[in-house]
């Protein structure tokens, strides 16, 4: 099945892509928002169901000086907007009250919580100053909603020119949700054949995907000159596959050029795997330098290429994940680790001396670490 990405405008707005693309960046200052007690712009988004209908919560900050340049809005449609929308599919776009300039008067500079509770024919937006006293509350009717209605929350930041405009980090487009908690609604997805690297044996594996659709993994291609090291059967018990990155625009590409391991004699890898990627396209994983060099952790960027992470190697070693602030986790030797470009490698030992492995890290720097049973 082929996936085609179209960039177009939704009725009445030029800021959203059609089909809708989920894009969740780190909290940023944008429009009239302020840094208030550590709150930045649009953040703390959550979606759940109350009484069978969708409930959305988020916080935002507001500066009393001005109107919001890029307000938070709702998109209400008859179909999942990720499939693409025509004019007749859109039931509603906007948010009443505007969460950055509530009538009847402009609120003071502060942070605010917003609860949006849907029913079968309307939604009620409740705005609270600092999550406490209600500042404003209003119910807005939407005609034609049903059990097949979809709702998405986004901030109306222009996305045109995102490939070259660093301000695109301000864009937020959260995952569309069904209006009701009806278990009969079938999740929307499509299958895409990522292919394989040249010289492969019809064997590739995807290990991670980020919020912009970049996939990383391992393919058994053999034609890449970067992976010709003598592994002696591979430290993993056989010839390792090659790490790859895949995008809808560029397809599958092998990661490289690979670094030489500083040993005597110097070693080149026979393969490896890409295991994690951030929303900025940074990739981490491990390279296989055979019995002599073992597994070594790497980080790859489009600008700097592939670099080894000092101390992130050994039996079972490898970098497994990277978050959007550049923090990398994995296993080096017998211990889980966290690594940053500035701070270097930090060992995350489990009390009692157990072998440990860090599997994942989120944007809040929470780390999933598990003991390894030997």
pLDDT < 50 stretches: 1-14, 232-238
Count the domains.
2
- The computed structural class is mainly beta
The biggest beta sheet reads: 6 strands, antiparallel
How large, in whole angstroms, is the Cα Rg? 24 Å
The termini sit apart by 42 Å
What's the average pLDDT?
78
Strand content: 35-45%
General form: elongated
| Count of β-strands | 27
Count of DSSP helices? 1
What percent of residues adopt helix (DSSP H or I)? Answer: under 10%
**H/E series:** EEEEEEEEEEEEEEEEEEEHEEEEEEEE
Task: Characterise the protein shown here.
The two termini are 42 Å apart. The chain has two domains: 23-178, no CATH class; 204-371, no CATH class. A hairpin with a 2-residue loop joins strand 23 and strand 24. Residues 1-14 and 232-238 have low confidence and may be disordered. The protein has 374 residues and is mostly beta strands. The chain is 1% helix and 41% strand. The strands form seven sheets. Strands 1, 6, 7, 11, 12 and 13 form a six-stranded antiparallel beta sheet that branches. The chain has one helix and 27 strands.
């Amino acid at each position: 099945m082929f996936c085609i990405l179209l960039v177009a405008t939704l009725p009445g707005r030029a800021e959203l892509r059609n089909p809708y693309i989920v894009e969740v960046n780190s909290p940023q200052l944008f429009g009239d928002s302020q840094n208030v007690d550590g709150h930045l712009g649009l953040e703390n988004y959550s979606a759940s169901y109350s009484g069978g209908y969708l409930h959305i919560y988020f916080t935002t900050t507001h500066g009393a000086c001005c109107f919001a340049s890029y307000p938070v809005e709702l998109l209400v449609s008859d179909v999942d907007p990720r499939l693409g929308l025509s004019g007749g599919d859109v039931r509603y776009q906007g948010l009443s009250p505007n969460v950055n300039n509530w009538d009847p008067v402009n609120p003071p500079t502060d942070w605010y919580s917003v609860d949006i509770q849907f029913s079968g024919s309307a939604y009620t937006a409740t705005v609270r100053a600092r999550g406490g006293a209600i500042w404003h509350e209003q119910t807005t009717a939407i005609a034609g909603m049903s059990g097949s209605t979809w709702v998405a929350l986004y901030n109306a930041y222009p996305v045109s020119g995102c490939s070259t405009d660093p301000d695109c980090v301000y864009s937020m487009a959260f995952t569309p949700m069904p209006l009701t908690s009806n278990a009969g609604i079938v999740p929307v997805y499509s299958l895409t054949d990522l292919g394989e690297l040249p010289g492969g044996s019809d064997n590739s594996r995807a290990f991670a995907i980020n919020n912009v659709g970049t996939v990383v993994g391992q393919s058994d291609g053999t034609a890449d000159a970067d992976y010709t090291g003598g592994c002696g059967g591979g430290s993993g018990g056989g010839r390792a596959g090659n790490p790859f990155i895949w995008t809808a625009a560029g397809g599958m590409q092998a990661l490289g050029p690979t670094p030489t391991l500083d040993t005597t004699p110097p070693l080149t890898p026979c393969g490896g795997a890409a295991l994690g990627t951030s929303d900025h396209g940074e990739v981490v994983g491990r390279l296989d330098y055979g019995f002599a060099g073992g597994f070594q952790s790497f980080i790859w960027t489009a600008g700097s290429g592939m670099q080894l992470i000092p101390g992130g190697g050994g039996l079972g070693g490898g970098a497994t994940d990277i978050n959007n602030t550049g923090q990398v986790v994995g296993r080096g030797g017998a211990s889980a680790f966290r690594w940053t470009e500035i701070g270097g490698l930090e060992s995350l030992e489990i009390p009692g001396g157990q072998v440990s492995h860090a599997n994942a890290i989120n944007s809040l720097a929470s780390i999933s670490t598990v003991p390894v049973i030997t």
